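ASSEMBLY PREDICTION REQUEST
Request ID: AP-0331
Submitted by: J.K., bench scientist
Number of chains: two
Total residues: 531
Priority: normal
Notes: Please return the full assembly, not individual chains.
Input sequences:
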Amino acid sequence: MQQKWIFFGGIVLLIALIVGLAVAQERIVREGTMVVLETRPVDPRDLFRGEYVILRYEIERDPRVMEFAQNIPEVERIHIRLRESTDGIARVAEVRATEPTYDQSSMWITGEINRSGSVRFPSIEQYYVPEGAGRAIEELRDELHVRVGLRNGEARTVELLDGNLEVIDPFAYRDE
Amino acid sequence: MHMKNREIKELIEGWLKDGVISNEQAMRMAADIREQTSQKSQHKLVSAISTIGGLALALGFLLLIAANWSTFGRTVKLVFAVLLPVVPLLIAYWLLIARGSTRMYARAANLVGIILIGGALALIGQIYNLDANMLNFFGLWTLLSAPFIFAFRKEENALVTLILLGVTIFFACLDAFADGRAGGELLIFTLSLIYLAYSYLLYRFGSHMRHSAVWGSIARVMRLAAGAFGTVVLFLMTFMFYAESVTEVLSLDPLLATPLSVFLNLLYIAFLFFVLVRAYRYEEDQTAAMVLRWFGIYLIVKYITLFGGMFATGLFFVVGGILFIAGGWILEHKQQDITAYMKRRFVTSHESGTE
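STATUS: Completed
Returned structure:
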């Protein structure tokens, strides 16, 4: 009897955790503010999670962001307010060290400053693509954009976009 | 006490010679042993095939995930992620607990379920393009696997969870030293101490539960895992790079690295001897065999690292060959004498209650 309760307790914990993880991500993707970021990708392979494109963003190289990261090394996190430009791409409007007050329409994104003084966004650095598509998508480097969901500073990738900000179908880039 | 078939046959021959049993009885005993051996071999074969099948199934699922099942929407993928480990675990529960089955496929379902917990977490990471935080991944996998040790009470649950915990510890240390300020030497030193503490704790728990009717088999897995972890860590500590890391971390004179390395090598040999004595005392032949294998690997590696640069290539292989042939001859001819002495010395001590 005791084994039965422990087993079903374990199953409930397992389901609760998996669903809880998914719900936390869905809130950002469905309810977050959508922005488009310009990228520059690299292509690795993760054995246990398939093929993915590593993404870097132009906002990491914004002069205000770089100056902030290099001049205030003791700060580990950076909060960046984005503003949508006329071309539809979000760019840096403000940079700060302290966490801001978030509201429904705010476009804040939180980044990490690593030891070398560069800014990274670990939660949106990878996008999983079908097997064989990574290299072809990586070659779009100058034209690749990403639609990202933002919520209270957290970001999640939603979809890849081309130079015309049209949604990319990763299946179309698979090796035959 | 586990006896090899050869030993049992020798016993039977001895009894026959002494007139304790008749010829017919001896033949009947020999036939029964042959029958049992055959059944055991088949059982081992089925066990091996089932385990390979279980692992292949789990790996197949993981690779299918890796090939990116993007044809499904997020909701379907989420349902799949939940079902992935839950279905085999429910099958294992029904077979192992509800029906009390001891079949290999029941245990294979258990193993598949535990491994697919990792598959489910990986699938969530893929669905939402999450960053590959290994500490979170292995930590969650360990946490979610642990309750099933107590539910199923099987060795495979304990073994997988202990390995996952060991990997989690590794990534936790890596994360703690991620900023690189502390340097690689401090990471190596800290990791070695933590793993030794981990091995010790596993051994203590395993020894404490040794005689438990319910947890005895899991306690054995814990002791074997402790032996394996401890052996690997102490073996790595015998290399010069470790002694140099310690002198660097503790700000000691670099010249102390060599005597420290000698001490660590002696410590390793002492540890192996300690484990060997315990193995003979508690008649754990598998552990004793593991220790002898590790000692053999140690000798080979040390011979290569110590003499590889000193001798010319031809001389290196000639001397090495002579040493290992001589060692093999000694072991082959003296093994029974050594084993008998060890058992006489340490099993007798154990039975008389002395430590």
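REVIEWER COMMENTS: The helical segments of chain A are 2-31, 63-71, 134-138.
SIGN-OFF: pending second reviewer
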